[in-house]
Amino acid sequence: MREITCCFTGHRPQNLAFGSDEAHEACLRVKAELDARVREAVDDGYRVFLSGMALGADIWAAETVLALKERVPGISLCCILPCATQASRWNRAQRARHERILSLCDEAVTMRPVYTRACMFERNREMIGRSGRLIAVYDGRGRGGTCFTVKLALCEGLEVVTIDPGGGGESLP
Question: Tens digits of per-residue pLDDT, 57-86?
Answer without folding.
Answer: 999 999 999 999 999 999 999 999 999 999
